[in-house]
Write a structure and sequence with these properties.
The structure is a homotetramer. Chain A is an all-alpha fold. Chain A has 2 domains: about 55 residues, Arc Repressor Mutant, subunit A; about 150 residues. Helix content of chain A is about 75%, strand content about 0%. At the C-D interface, α1, α6, α7, α8 and α9 of C face α1, α6, α7, α8 and α9 of D. The first copy, chain A, binds a DNA duplex through α3.
DNA sequence: TATGAATGAGTGTTCATTCAT
DNA sequence: TATGAATGAACACTCATTCAT
């Protein structure tokens, strides 16, 4: 066993370094564009060690998803359904800021998730089964705020397509947007938050109020 | 041995068959996951012929983008800014239905575009230069409806992140959503259209009214 | 297509050169010890071409077996059951000489067959299914000379274990024997032929006579 | 963590467990097809321990051969030259039964020996030097029964190719034969013993009588 | 235009072996 | 003695691309 008392200077255990390197490389190149050699090089380990810990490139992807997507959704749930978002805009903005900070730190994961989710089935089925289970858990929070059963499904659809998706897209696209349109980050984020509140929060408020 | 005397009706010219096959394969597997062999097989042509018409796999991707993304945005612009969407909901729904039909027919293109756009730069820069130019054209329509210069950028941000992105996401994700949550298409689409109108159209209406 | 009119100087079509090289390398190193790189080098082709013609190392082994084992058994059958072997020793010796010449030209194939047949099942099952079918055909000749059903199985057992196997073993082991005991080929072969006639031919003659 | 206080009965010492596991794995897959990982797993030890006791995979093979082949030949010699085999068939059958029982218990060793002996030289030379020495010792028994020097070599050839080889082949092939032709073990063995006696014993009897 | 054959440079994976403890 | 971690060198196989016809 190496590193009995983990040296502070960023020398994490090899297994984690591999996971982290893979996360970055997958995010940059996509799963199929990623090279195991590059992951090894960035993790500072021998390529064979990757196969010692994770049995294949695909299993490595799964390992990345397993823990992290769950963690993201766990954070997203309460945050998105904090009822203070409907009370005053200052509160809504504060919550959005926290949420975006949190998600931006996981942007690599979101990139991978989104890229993989867009491959046409059946190539894609394996990964979406995993995702569906997680969304189900996220939606239990949505469901609890909906009284009329006929609105349940619409609430889910809305939370996903006008909530999660723009949020994820912002996190994934904001850098390139800044580059393409020459906007600074603060301004772009402010515009996005404002737009998101006006669009998604307004719409969900209507829906949830009807269901009180 | 292939069709010496190519029947003029139904059997497309080889060059187009290649483009079509590539579009499908890229959409299923992503650019890096796609195999030139499979494109050739689906197009019913010899692999070398692909290199005769398009000089590389990458150029083939470019060829797919060139005409089509432009065409999609050309349609999207007027449609999205048809002012009748603010008048009555029936009109808004009708316009949305037409738009979704149109986009669903181009879903393969959207998949490829979205997947590629999510790779982290700088891998990604080449494709986004193309996109930025196109968005610029699309936004000229947005800009024309905005009087106050300080709202211009926000209008663009809104149209992209709460407009285009959910729309594209619906087109790309609706099949897997149906499979994952057991919803039928009509119901899912109705829920999405309603959600989109409540969120995006409501928000843009506010913004555009302020700028009248 | 290369080599329209096959140049006389040993430049066979690539596919055959691969097969021949594989035969030699498998015989020298065994299937698992053989390296595809070496096969390519000896065949004078690019490694990828091997996979163009044969889809895997295993399929290449199968391809080698398919044609050749059949051919060997086709020759062995009539030869072994030529009734002249019982008439006078000169005839028996002549037949044995021809047979050994024939088999020695196929010694690589025999080596591979024997090596693979000795792996313990179930690793081994795939190859023996092939072999069993071929032996069945060989044994139809044996069966035809046996009148009493209760002797049928013994005839097969005898033909295999005291006939085929010593024959194959001689072909496969004679070189190393010469080296180990310093015998010259003519002498060794004469001794073997004499021994084989005394043992196997004598025993089968008894059995077949009883069944007249 | 493994057996700190090794129970003296039943749990063999690690070194022996490794040797036994290697014997089985080599017999199943051949030397080149065998994996050190699998040997370690079957022996229930850490892979590195194999290198502690035996310094390489090849040395492990040598270790297996060293004691055992010698032991087999030591048993074979007297057994095969027990003169009672010529007296009455009942005695011959009894001796054969004992011999086959003995060899079947060493069938893994025989498989490995035979497989390795069939690789074409020079890959193969190392192992045959070992074998030649052992055969030499075995043949000293043969030689002692031969008076005429010109028959000495033929006796050796006969003992090997029509004696040892069918015997070994039976041990190694009988399982797959049963499977392929649906014979039960007792019947197959009886047929083989009978055939072997008729072929090999008959032939050697002739030879040895001439040399009395 | 079209193809079957051929290839260089990888690509994910395996494996015998070694190291630190 | 014994182990979990680590590695260099291969390994079978793939793939975009080119060539000869």
């Amino acid at each position: 066993m190496v590193n009995h008392e983990a040296p502070e200077g960023g020398v994490a255990a090899a297994k984690e370094r591999i996971r982290d390197a893979a996360l970055r490389v997958f995010a940059e190149r996509g799963f199929d564009g990623a090279r195991v050699d590059e992951i090894a090089k960035r993790a500072g380990v021998n390529k064979a060690l990757i196969y010692y810990y994770y049995e294949s490139k695909e299993k490595l992807l799964d390992a990345i998803f397993q823990g992290s997507v769950e963690e993201v959704l766990a954070e997203l749930g309460p945050e998105l359904h904090d009822t203070r978002i409907f009370e005053d805009e200052a509160a809504a903005v504060a919550i959005m800021e926290r949420l975006l900070d949190f998600l931006e730190q996981r942007q690599d994961l979101l990139r991978i998730f989104l890229m993989e989710s867009m491959k046409r089935s059946p190539v894609n089925d394996r990964i979406f089964i995993l995702i569906a289970a997680l969304l189900d858990r996220l939606f239990s929070l949505v469901d609890s705020q909906i009284a009329r059963p006929e609105d349940m499904e619409r609430a889910r659809v809305m939370e996903f397509f006008t909530g999660l998706i723009p949020l994820f897209s912002y996190v994934v696209h904001h850098e390139i947007w800044m580059k393409a349109f020459g906007m600074d980050e603060a301004r772009l984020r402010a515009d996005f938050v404002r737009s998101f509140i006006d669009a998604h929060f307004t719409a969900t408020e209507m829906l949830y109020k009807t269901n009180k």
